[in-house]
Amino acid sequence: MQNRIKQFIEDKGISRYKFWQDTKLGRDTAYRLCNDPNYVPTGSVLDKICTTYRVQPGELLVWLPDEEPCLDVIADSQISQIDDRANINQRPRKESKDQADGIVLPFERQSA
Questions:
Q1: Mean pLDDT, consecutive 10-residue segments, the chain of 112 residues?
Q2: What is the phi/psi pair of residue 28, to 5°?
Q3: Is the distance from CB of 30 to CB of 19 less than 8 angstroms?
Q4: How far apart are CA 89 and CA 82, in angstroms?
Q5: Is residue 53 classed exposed, middle or buried when 0-12, 13-18 and 19+ CB atoms within 10 A define those classes?
Q6: Which of 15, 33, 105, 108 could make a disulfide contact with 5, Cβ separation 3.0–4.6 Å?
Q7: Where are the alpha helices (DSSP H) in the chain?
Q8: What local confidence, expressed as pLDDT, does residue 77 receive?
């Protein structure tokens, strides 16, 4: 998620100072929104901006997908998972068949 405040105010011809004065946000918050696109405003800050300029939040925020992980990393991860599963399946198990239900249990059934 990124904010597009800098682009928004540039398109409107508004200075950062004017943006701060118009919205009545804290100075640090207003300037950080203009300077740092990775700074996502809280709901109340977003509400002040939308109310001041009569815009929808979608004009101020954009969602960007995370970068795709490298295919080699995915392949290595999957191979590791397959090896782990193979080791689990090689462990000896004592199985007994429950005669009444036909269920295979991973342990010996003992009566009480």
A1: 94 96 96 95 95 95 76 54 56 52 60 62
A2: -60, -40
A3: yes
A4: 11
A5: middle
A6: 33
A7: 5-12, 16-23, 27-35, 43-53, 71-89
A8: 55
Handedness of CA 12, 17, 20, 21 (dihedral sign): negative
* Amino acid letter for position 3: N
Cα dist from 39 to 58, 68, 96, 99, whole Å: 15, 22, 59, 64
Q: Helix 27-35 and helix 5-12: axis angle, to 10°?
A: 90
Q: Tokens 């939308």 correspond to what residue? A: 50
